[in-house]
Every structure is written in structure tokens, then in C-alpha cells.
Design goal:
The structure is a homodimer. By secondary structure, chain A is an alpha/beta fold. In chain A, helix 1 packs across helix 11. Chain A folds into two domains: 117 residues, Rossmann fold; 113 residues, Rossmann fold, CATH 3.40.50. Chain A is globular, with a radius of gyration of 18 Å. Helix content of chain A is 51%, strand content 11%. Chain A starts with 6 loop residues before the first strand and ends with a helix. In chain A, helix 10 links the parallel strand 6 and strand 7. At the A-B interface, helix 1 and strand 2 of A face helix 1 and strand 2 of B. Strand 2 of chain A pairs antiparallel with strand 2 of chain B, so a sheet runs across the interface.
Amino acid sequence: MSQPFLLGVLGGMGPLATVDFMYKLLAATPAADDQQQIPVVAWNVPQIADRQKALAGLGPSPLPQLLQGIHRLNEAGASHIAIPCNTAHHWYGALREASTAPLLHIVEATLEKLQTAPARPEHVGIIATQGTLDAGWFQQGLTRLGITPVLPTADEMQNWFVPGCYAVKRGAPAEGGALLLRQAQALCARGAGALILACTEVPVALQAIGAPALPQTFDPAVALAERCSQLWQAYRQAAFS
Amino acid sequence: MSQPFLLGVLGGMGPLATVDFMYKLLAATPAADDQQQIPVVAWNVPQIADRQKALAGLGPSPLPQLLQGIHRLNEAGASHIAIPCNTAHHWYGALREASTAPLLHIVEATLEKLQTAPARPEHVGIIATQGTLDAGWFQQGLTRLGITPVLPTADEMQNWFVPGCYAVKRGAPAEGGALLLRQAQALCARGAGALILACTEVPVALQAIGAPALPQTFDPAVALAERCSQLWQAYRQAAFS
């Protein structure tokens, strides 16, 4: 209790997904007034080298700009840091080492939520960047839980996921939603009884089109927001008791 | 061009209105990708003494916490600072003096937008806190433009505005929306042909209920976001030309 609670958000990937995450933080926190809400400092600076291109070997690494964000958030007094971008967790180790404040992990938060879900289907689809899919975090986590992952095909990635994701980034979330819905439906057609929306642009896009009938979805941004909020609520309770 | 552009947002008043403002910043900025979006550092720390109570003489001043936010944003490298809370502009002078980065003014941005609106009705209603109404900023601005302000009555403030505003602050924006809609309709019934939603909780609340038929509305949060975005777009153009 030496340092006051202050959640640092390393955002900008993309900026709209960061705002969506900040909204989810508030939605996850019961509060009777402004003062009970979770205190946040957000670094929503999107001038970061493209993560998908970097991981495909087609562009510079975003690590220097990510480290700058981590430093600024620590300087601002962050007691914990969350990164509302799945793909950026590729650099999680380097960022954790550079940070005084502990970094939460979006995949861990999501898998924990999946593990405690009342009903778990046998097959779960993963909608994510190629970088996140290549890392294998979600596939390994599902396999540990005895769940079979259902993945996008190369054609689906090229025709639906990638353009859908970049549509959100250029401020056309509904356009992205139409493409990402087709991606979601394709995974369901191949047997997925639930979906992990493992790129923070995806829930933004699906929400923009009113997300018609999908099976159970797990939103890593919500799982991460809930974990952050639980830390704040525990701190608040301890501080006021 | 010595300092890179970075918008500091002094938020938390309330936290949901700040997230709404951050969304409006993105909506105001044409961008082809993440990297063209406006870079923002947001201090969304709502542990600030209640502004309405302070101005009514019923609670401590929020100035120390506001100054702390201003200092943190300057330390984080903010080149400009915006405050998405009308009432907090009561302390604008003290905050401006304490800040290296220039502070934009939400009332100025709104009045400028009103001045250049294609159609201006003769009577414009103001939905705002008692503190903002007592300051007279919007009334004076309207009068200068030859427009007659239409104000809430004491009963309306007590029954609709105040509980509507605090409903948003405790995470019940739809409940707030129902009350604030009645406030809006009362002003229209007394002749207002347009409304200034001069408390940043109000547009959040009205949006939560799908805001049924209202006349032209001026949203100071949008006006401020547009002004911030124009500064960023001018900087971006100069930096890349």
C-alpha cells in the first residue's frame, strides 16, 4: 500500500481499441460516484510501428516506441500496467523487464476466464492476427483445457481478417465488422461453439454492426479490464477499511 | 515544431465523459491508419473533489487534484491540454498559469462553433451545472451573438439535471438520459430552438437512451475535440510536408 493504485494503459494499438478498453474498465467497476471509479493514466499514442508488419518481417520493430510508453507510464506513477492489444504481447517479456510497475497479461486473463466459464464447448475459434496465431498462446491454453482450437485459413486471413482489422484502424469499424463477421461465421461453420476475439479491434468492429447472432464470445479486452478492476476494488476496499 | 504534438487530457470529471471525449477526438480526425490518429495522454483519475459541491460551498476545492493532473500531463510531454468538463473551467485561470502546455478552452471552442453554424435559432437552451450557469460563460457568449439563452428553473435542476448528471457518474447513463431528456424537452417547450449540452455527462446520457427527437444540439465536447484535432492535423501536415 506504499504506492497509490493507478492503472497505466499502454494503448494506441489501435487508438479506438484503447478507448473501447477504457470504457470496459469503467463497465467492469461498480461505483456509486466518480471517486469510486478506477484511476487510469492512458498513453494512447498510436505513432508505433505496425506490429503485424514487424512480425511478418515487413517493417521495423515497435519495441522502441512501446518502451517509451512503458517509461512514460512508470514516470506518471502507474502502479500496474495493462496493454489492450493481443499482438503487442509478443514484446511482453522485454516490456516487463523495463517496467517498475507489474504488467498484466491479456492472454492469462482470458484463459483464466475461459477456465472458470460455466459452459465450455469442445471447439473454440480464435480470431487474431497472424502474429498472435503464430505465437500459439491461445492454442496452447485451449489445448491445456482439453479444448480443440479452430483457426482461420490463410485465405480467410487475407480476405476477411486483415482488411477487417485495418478498416477499424482507418476509422471504418462497421466496414471492418462486416468482414470480421464473415470470419466469425466461417469458424462457427467449421465447428467452433465459442469464439475468442483475440485482437482488440474485433469486438469494436462487431459492436459497430450490432453483432448479429454469434455463439458465446470471449473478449480478452473484457477479461483484462475485469482483472484490472478487481485489483482496484481490492485496493479501494483495503484503503477504506 | 520544437516539441512533438501530444494532447494531454485532464479527465476524470467524470471518467465516462472522458472516455466519450477520447472517442470524439478519434471521430473528429480523418486517418488512413493508426499512425495518423491523434496522439493522446489521458489523466483519467476521478479521485477529485466534487466540483458542483465545491462551487456550492458544500465541499473542498478540487484545485489541488486538478493541479496534480496538470503537472503530470506536462511531465508526460503534453504540448496542449484539454479539459472535457465544463464546470472545471471555473479553475481555468489557475490551471493555465500552472501549465507550460497551453490549455484549450471548452466554452471558446463551443461559441466559435455556434458562431459559424449555418442556422442559429433566436433562443438557445443551456443544460449545465449550477456552477457553469452561475459563471455565465455561455449566457454571455449567446447574448454577444444576439441569441436569447433559455435556462433551467431551480425545480428542473433539482428534479432532473442534478440526479441525471449523478446517475451517469454512478454508471447508470440510461437512467440519467431519461431525466436529462425531460430537462431538454422543458427548455424546448419554453422556446429553445437549439440546446447546448454544456455538461459533458449530458451527451453520454442522451446517447445511452438513443436520444429521441431533439432540436439542433451543440456538444461542447465535440467542439473541443474538433479544435484539438485541427491542431493535430495542422501539425501532422507541417511535419510531413
